[in-house]
Fold this sequence. Notes:
Elements: H1 2-30, H2 34-60, H3 65-76, H4 80-89
Helix pairs in contact: 1-2, 1-4, 2-3, 3-4
Amino acid sequence: MLKAFRITAILEGISYLLLFGITMPLKYWADILEPNKFVGYAHGALFIAYVAIALVFCWTQKWGIKRFIVLFAASLLPFGTFYADKKYLKTLE
């Protein structure tokens, strides 16, 4: 479960950075819509998977609601899931 959570966290972070760093500028500055659509779908699915796995993982590890809130907030910030992976998940290995 930990490995799946870490992989999902990293992929969600990468998709977030791709969305805001590459595809959004392409959409608004170059009128190229397709990359934003596909990366947006992938990011949405990864975001939902990340939050669901975080909820289950916090439940199974008997972590409190505060730790879940930190993990959830990390998914909303650029580079946040990388920080959460390093601070909370990597230390469990």
